[in-house]
Amino acid sequence: MTQIGKTIQIFLPDGNPRGLRVAEITSRTVSAVQIPRSKLDQAALRAELSGVGVYLLFGSDAAKPRVYIGEAENCLSRLKQHNKQKDFWAQAIAFISKTQHFTKTHIKYLEWLCCDTAQRVNRFTLENGNTPSKPHVQESVEADLLDNFDSMQLLVSTLGYPVFDEIKKPDNAHLVFCKGKSADAEGEYSEEGLTVFKGSTCNLIGTPSLGNWAVSARAELVDSGTLSEQDGLLVFQEDHVFTSPSTAAVVVLARQANGWLEWKYKSGKTLDEVVRQSPR
């Protein structure tokens, strides 16, 4: 399916690309305000943040990023509370309506939909203690809110947090494989890096030359539940995105490895041959 182009405007209120950022799709009604935790004082100058909205708190983790999803009648006030009470987060993104104010029912529904989608997609660890229940809304209202959520999904991913983006296994022509000893992994190379799919297996014991960073990376994946020991192997319990093919290959093979050469297509060609050496 051909993707339809979108125009997204990102405004930097103070000209700092690492400061507050306001993102919006020009043809839609939802706006996203990204707020570094250290810039909450500056965020207080944004009048729209004192209104009703849905917000997400993001924190990094070595194995898997973390997110907390909430709703508030005053987003700024709630973020200030979380600044005192929650330690894990470094960035917040608040979603508000540009043309009409969300009602309490609207944001309750969007909060539920955000939590439900994030939990199902499972790309981030959801930090919410309790999952909100789905509120009842009229069919016409639900259709509008689903449209709002599509905008939220695109904006939050554009800002660098694909918390709602589902990972889908491609057809065999686009799958890559990494095998060695008992290891047998399937993956896909994309704009995000190298995704290793659930059910892939890794060698359990690392070689003596395996670096400390790799030992730590594998241990963190085990601690997070992404990898689990089964029958003398480490098995991926969920899809996992690595930032580079080589990191993925080292984790799978438990030895030093060049992922561009280790990951191969069904044809036998390496990732390097297909992606880096193919004529453009």
From TrEMBL:
Residues 218-271 form the DUF4357 domain. It holds the Pfam family DUF4357. InterPro entries: DUF4357. This is DUF4357 domain-containing protein. The lineage of its organism: Bacteria, Pseudomonadati, Pseudomonadota, Gammaproteobacteria, Chromatiales.
